[in-house]
Automatic annotation (TrEMBL):
Residues of the FAD-binding PCMH-type domain: 125-304
Signal sequence, start to end: 1-18
Cited InterPro entries: BBE, FAD-bd_PCMH, FAD-bd_PCMH-like_sf, FAD-bd_PCMH_sub2, FAD-linked_Oxidoreductases_BP, Oxid_FAD_bind_N
Keyword annotations: Oxidoreductase, Signal
Top-level taxon: Eukaryota
Gene Ontology molecular-function annotations: FAD binding; oxidoreductase activity
Protein name per Swiss-Prot or TrEMBL: FAD-binding PCMH-type domain-containing protein
Family: Belongs to the oxygen-dependent FAD-linked oxidoreductase family.
UniProt cross-references to SUPFAM superfamilies, sorted A to Z: FAD-binding/transporter-associated domain-like
Organism of provenance: Talaromyces rugulosus
Keyword Signal: yes
Gene3D superfamilies: 3.30.465.10, 3.40.462.20
Amino acid sequence: MRSLGSFILCSTLAFAKAAPEPTCNYIAGDAGWPTRSEWDQLNQTISGQLIQTVPMGSVCHYEPFGNYNETECNELRKDWDFRHWKFKVWEMGQIHVTHPSEIMNPYYQNRSCDPFTSAETPCELGNYASYSINVTSARDVIAGIQFAKEKNIRLVVKNTGHDYHGRSSGSNSLALWMYNLKTSEINHNYRSSYYSGAAVRLGAGMGVGESYMAVHEHGYRIVGGECGTVGVAGGYSQGGGHSVLTSENGLGSDQVLEWEVVTTTGEYLIATPEQNSDLYWALSGGGGGTYGVVVGVTVKIFKDGPFAGGALVFNNTDTPGKEVFWKAVELWYQYFPSFTVNNNTVQFVLLNSTLDAQAINLPGQTVEDVNKLMAPYLAELDGLGIQYSFTTEYSETYYDHFNNYYGPLPHGAEPVTTILYARLVPRKVIQDKKANAKLIDSLRSVVESGKWLIGCGVFNLQNKIHPDNAVLPAWRDAQAVCIANGFWNFEATAEENLKLKEELADFHAPAMDAATPGSGVYMNEVDPLYKGDWKEAMYGANYELLLDIKHKYDPDHLLFGHMSVGSDEFHFDGSGRLCYGQQDSNINLDVGLVNQAMGWRSSWSMNWGRE
Ligand SMILES: Cc1cc2nc3c(=O)[nH]c(=O)nc-3n(C[C@H](O)[C@H](O)[C@H](O)COP(=O)(O)OP(=O)(O)OC[C@H]3O[C@@H](n4cnc5c(N)ncnc54)[C@H](O)[C@@H]3O)c2cc1C
Ligand SMILES: *[C@@H]1O[C@H](CO)[C@@H](O)[C@H](O)[C@H]1NC(C)=O
Ligand SMILES: *[C@@H]1O[C@H](CO)[C@@H](O)[C@H](O)[C@H]1NC(C)=O
Ligand SMILES: *[C@@H]1O[C@H](CO)[C@@H](O)[C@H](O)[C@H]1NC(C)=O
Ligand SMILES: *[C@@H]1O[C@H](CO)[C@@H](O)[C@H](O)[C@H]1NC(C)=O
Ligand SMILES: *[C@@H]1O[C@H](CO)[C@@H](O)[C@H](O)[C@H]1NC(C)=O
Ligand SMILES: *[C@@H]1O[C@H](CO)[C@@H](O)[C@H](O)[C@H]1NC(C)=O
Ligand SMILES: *[C@@H]1O[C@H](CO)[C@@H](O)[C@H](O)[C@H]1NC(C)=O
């Protein structure tokens, strides 16, 4: 094992650089970067919860960590790119979720310590945090914030590392790792001026699947994503949050009754619709990692009960002279308003070859109801001479329904290597035949090459009462969120993957935008290379107020995230220091990318990247 001393020396040599501007954070190698004994002091104040980053990929490299181990490296390679078929599902990204400083997104992993590069290639920290605090309480959060401020180093907040913009990570940063705050306390009779009913207080580290299980034991259900590994209190509830229950109960952000927050001024606050209501408003939909550090959240829960489900699949068997598939797709979209009566939702994937409605979700209803709901559309398919497979299933609870269609809990099956763009589809587009036809043309242009698929969640939020919050208003008028998905190809070169991302940003996203004028995006599911007006598309009319609230609660500018509110007030200098203040040219997103192993396309029929 190499000594820590040689690691520090080596990283010092690797970063020969000019003195930072006063507004920039220090990076490793700067004279101002904390000394070993200063890190030790921090560690003591937080009872030994400080972790120095050792990337998982270091077992595949000789330098500088000195823990190369061929056996462990081979194991890691099997898990890294999610090819593992375990328990009939892909164990999606669990290895990245449970580690203090790993992140899921290959673009931001950036091959800095990649298990597939040669053992001689040094393992570098790249975008990974340098140190993480394994947070056990608000006290640890306050200690981390104080240290970052005093020492002038970058601070990041990580829960599960799902973020598509690398925002739960950061080069030369101290990370607040919230993931182990796994508590849940049921309150059967929560009372306030704005809600009376059941609620649960979740620690910031609770995952969607874990939360489903925790409330299920008490006979309740809770709004959470279709993906079990996402964290509830982090980016999900802070950024909108769609789910199987969107039509019945609203978005993830709409469920929040109380936020428990540590601000970057070191204050511990409770934010509710009545108390610190501006912070409550911003945190509920204004984006993760921007306004403060959430240590716990109290959300509504609902008595669980019956659920009926369905699944419908039909293929594109068009031949010249017999073109019916896209006609059927057009009709499918026209049916959205009728599908989403009675609080129903539908999730489906559209490929050039198939329309696969993997989950038709009917809360509180029966198989009879599913048949009745789908009969008119199935008659259309019959009329067009399209063969289909249609199945139904009844579950005693939402929990069982979710397990059947999205499970197995707690993780479920989700590919994490998606390159994606999520656009909100307004109801008025669906209801206007010409506009709908144009939408289908744009979606067809996305999937036609066979490289992309469209995954949509269909819902209805019309006339749903919700708290006043910062959720992008376009959600309320939307009938679906439709997501163009491509897949990171670990076997391709850096340039090929980048080209795929650019194809999305240059062609598919603009085509989807043009077909849905005036609408917006789901801020959590947008590719970082998106070239549209991100402020307008992600935050809409809320942006200016969100910025004021950001300035109020984060006056020293500690929290930064790509395309987060206020992010354009920051820049990176030539050596990668995060600086507050404007610079002339924009952040350079040029990148050397990851390239290893996986054939996602062949598994599209099994896993369609439902989001
Ligand atoms: C495989 C996959 C499946 C997905 N499925 C769904 C889905 O079904 N429905 C849906 O709506 N979205 C889904 N998403 C998007 C997901 O909601 C976002 O990526 C979300 O930001 C994840 O939040 P996190 O806290 O788990 O992740 P992280 O990456 O850890 O954090 C995301 C952001 O929130 C911040 N943050 C995290 N914790 C805190 C905290 N305690 N206080 C303050 N800031 C915090 C981070 O700094 C970062 O900016 C999915 C994403 C992936 C990769
Ligand atoms: C912090 O202290 C704990 C307990 O003494 C120790 O195990 C851990 O390695 C220390 N972390 C760092 C970064 O030194
Ligand atoms: C490599 O890792 C394996 C599995 O953890 C362990 O059994 C073995 O002893 C390690 N080898 C060396 C040389 O450390
Ligand atoms: C983080 O802290 C928790 C609680 O003390 C502990 O159980 C866990 O092992 C720690 N994780 C790591 C990676 O240190
Ligand atoms: C839809 O959900 C709401 C709760 O948001 C409920 O009050 C209403 O009864 C539900 N409607 C139907 C038809 O089940
Ligand atoms: C669609 O095609 C797949 C294989 O290409 C086949 O397995 C499936 O049975 C087809 N489904 C229908 C409804 O025709
Ligand atoms: C898309 O579908 C059409 C009709 O079935 C087919 O002719 C075409 O080859 C498909 N494109 C790809 C890339 O598979
Ligand atoms: C990836 O690494 C390269 C080389 O260090 C750097 O220039 C680029 O900005 C990094 N990309 C991302 C997305 O971090």
